[in-house]
Amino acid sequence: MTETLTPLAAIRARIDLAARAAGRDPASVRLVAVSKTQPVEAIARVWDGGHRIYGENRVQEAAGRWSDRRTAGEPFELRLIGPLQTNKVREAVALFDAIDTLDREKLAAALAETIQKTGRSPEILVQVNTGEEPQKAGVLPADADAFLKLARERYDLPVSGLMCIPPEGEPAGPHFALLAKIAARNGLTQLSMGMSGDFESAIRFGATMVRVGSALFGERSY
Ligand SMILES: *Cc1c(COP(=O)(O)O)cnc(C)c1O
To answer: Relative to the CA of 57, which ligand 1 atom is closest?
Structure first.
């Protein structure tokens, strides 16, 4: 008899395999389950499978979905992986354990002010627009070093790594490599890269977090 793995177990097995193939410890790769737009039953299946790291791309939507679990007190990690407006910073800092999309000075200033006022300090990643796409958020690769210095020195933000979303329809490898290079020269250890279609490649290039949505929960309905 063949055993069917749950989608969660299957993704974990693929992460393990990709890490080992790259000579890495599988425990060095975190799975961020991207739950945006997913129905409660789909999230409940992954939650009941024991998974406790989730990513959302909108503050309001995330609040609706996760505030009750927060209040209930069971620990889990919630990461903001979508753009953050400065007027939502207070709410975001209250709800999220990590903001993965810092990309401009105005946001750095707002985060610094909120962290100081509230004493709550989320982990912070800087998003890099590796493909230099005009419609995409993120600092340009050429500006990344200066922006990181600004965020860490002027605003004293606890930046631990970088995040990118490579352009659709081109090989992601060079983008993952570029992100890893920028992180290394800035002494950053965390790399959030790789999604359903390319997380194994991202692991080869050093991803410490992969953001998997549809391969885990099923296709999103908008
Ligand atoms: C939606 C989303 C993902 C997950 O995408 P899938 O292809 O469904 O795995 C990952 N990262 C970001 C920033 C997203 O918005």
So the answer is: 15
